[in-house]
């Protein structure tokens, strides 16, 4: 049969056959679950009963009217703020370690090391660091006479999200630094030398020459940071369980509780779809801002 087909048709057939398996897998494990999620968001379902009741936009109405849900979403914005600071810090260290600094390879390893550590191990380590009674951080504060600052870090509604945000910065800043460092090393040295010859200072060279050449990488890092902060789950789940009194609940932990603790899979699905839309909106704003800056 293949002998009767032309070379162009054989090539097209091979391409279709090679693409068929990944397309089927993508449809089964990505497209179908996403469509089923949207379908469930219009239903009232406890997760066990074979019967599902159509409620239309009732679940979405409940999501937007539920103050606890949006309070949890505001907690994600704290992580977003720390994530932006994390990117700025990663870029700063990348610029610093891209120079002829003595021992720069050792510093690179030290800063990247937290990223390769297991997330659960990091959570338990910082549970000891910020423990209100025997934690090393409070011990340090008391030893220098700052007893008034030695509070229950995971028990304070005002401090808990910032503590968790700091932990995410400590863990992921090294990854941002490595990505920025690779981008900086791809910038042609000729244009940097030309800027120096024209009398530009190190700061002017970084702002006017280097950064405009790595805007795509900055956009990528911001993309990953925004997705990660809006979908954060592991640290608040392990360290605080959403406490105290829901002060550290995130949108995703609230969604998981709605589904598996309160058996309201319809509303949980609506919350998931809402989160997807929120991520798309925030990413669109970020993309628009970075495009304008690069232009």
From TrEMBL:
Q: Which UniProt keywords apply?
A: Cell membrane, Membrane, Transmembrane, Transmembrane helix, Transport
Q: Which residues form a coiled coil?
A: none
A GO term from the CC aspect: plasma membrane
Q: Which GO terms describe its biological process?
A: transmembrane transport
Query: Is Cell membrane included in the keywords of this UniProt record?
Result: yes
- Span-the-membrane segments of this chain are 12-39, 77-97, 109-130, 222-245, 265-285
- Bilayer topology annotation: Multi-pass membrane protein
Q: Which residues form the ABC transmembrane type-1 domain?
A: 72-286
Short name of any one Pfam family annotated for the protein = BPD_transp_1
Task: List the subcellular locations.
Answer: Cell membrane
State whether keyword Membrane applies: yes
The similarity annotation says: Belongs to the binding-protein-dependent transport system permease family.
Protein name, entry field: Sugar ABC transporter permease
